[in-house]
């Protein structure tokens, strides 16, 4: 191989390495005209949001039930619907918690090695 061929190969190699390094260091950006998305939420953020929503539903149920007990509203169907919604969201959250605990226990009991 001639010296020019070797120098060409080395130049190409250096360029490939430089581009590879630049790609590793580059930050992803949204295409033009597209709004950047929010960073992905963590599992803890999602869990906190769900618990907050369940709490909000429970508080709404308390307010409506107390209003009905004071005689401020006579729409028993709405009260029953909100009570059912609060009960279902709480039970669903409880089942998810039970499944998470079960999965955690299964992982803890896995043999290592």
UniProtKB/TrEMBL annotation:
Family (UniProt): Belongs to the FliE family.
Compartments where found: Bacterial flagellum basal body
A single MF term (Gene Ontology): cytoskeletal motor activity
Keywords, in A-Z order: Bacterial flagellum, Cell projection, Cilium, Flagellum
Gene of this entry: fliE
Domain of life of the source: Bacteria
Annotated Gene Ontology cellular component terms: bacterial-type flagellum basal body
Protein name: Flagellar hook-basal body complex protein FliE
Major location category of this protein: other
GO terms for biological process, alphabetical: bacterial-type flagellum-dependent cell motility
Presence of keyword Methyltransferase: no
């Amino acid at each position: 191989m001639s010296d020019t061929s070797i120098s060409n190969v080395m130049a190409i190699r250096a360029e490939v390495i430089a581009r590879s390094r630049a790609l590793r260091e580059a930050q992803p950006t949204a295409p033009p005209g597209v709004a950047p998305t929010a960073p992905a939420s963590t599992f803890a953020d999602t869990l906190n949001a769900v618990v907050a929503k369940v709490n909000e539903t429970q508080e709404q149920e308390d307010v409506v039930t107390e209003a009905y007990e004071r005689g401020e509203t006579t729409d028993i169907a709405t009260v029953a619907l909100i009570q059912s919604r609060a009960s279902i969201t709480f039970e669903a959250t409880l089942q998810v918690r039970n499944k998470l605990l079960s999965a955690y226990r299964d992982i803890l009991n896995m043999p290592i090695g």
